[in-house]
Amino acid sequence: MDKFISLVVGAAIGLGCGIIPLIVGIFTKQRLTGIIGIVSCTICGVLFAVLEKPPITSIAIAALFLIVILMTKKKEEHHSSDNIEKGIYAESFISGAEKGKSLEKDEKANSENDDKSSKGDAG
After folding, report:
1. Which of the residues 19, 63, 67, 79 has the least number of beta carbons within 10 Å of its own beta carbon?
2. Are the C-beta atoms of 50 and 14 separated by less than 8 Å?
3. CA 113, CA 123: separation in Å to the nearest integer?
4. Could you tell me if 59 and 75 are in contact, meaning their C-beta atoms sit under 8 angstroms apart?
């Protein structure tokens, strides 16, 4: 009975440590990594209890999953800005530049027509 209580306490401590990566994973939209983190912490809490080690050492597993979640989030943000530099969105910029050139041509044509009409009225 003493071993069973030790396993339950180990699972509870592991579950408590694993809640932190789960919450951070949900907020950073990495639920799967958070779920894997809470399961790993719970299993390690039980495993440490079986090995008669302090189950609070499952906090190291939680810290590892927090690092993984936070590092992969930064990496995704970095790649999204690279797309602009690589020219993936260049098409929208080019079409905007072409519109600017066509507006300049229209303005020239309008000013030439205005000059011709003003000369015609004066003569």
Report:
1. 79
2. no
3. 16
4. no
Measured CA to CA, the distance from residue 7 to residue 44 in angstroms comes to 11
Chain centroid offset of residue 15 CA: 26
User: Cβ(20)–Cβ(35) under 8 Å?
Assistant: no
pLDDT tens digits for range 12-29: 999 999 999 999 999 998
Using an 8 Å Cβ cutoff, are 22 and 62 in contact? no
On whether the pTM is more than 0.90, the answer is: no
Q: Minimal CA–CA distance to 72: which of 18, 20, 25?
A: 25
- The amino acid that residue 13 corresponds to is I
Q: Alpha-carbon Rg of the chain, whole angstroms?
A: 32
Q: Determine the 3-state secondary structure of 87 from DSSP.
A: coil
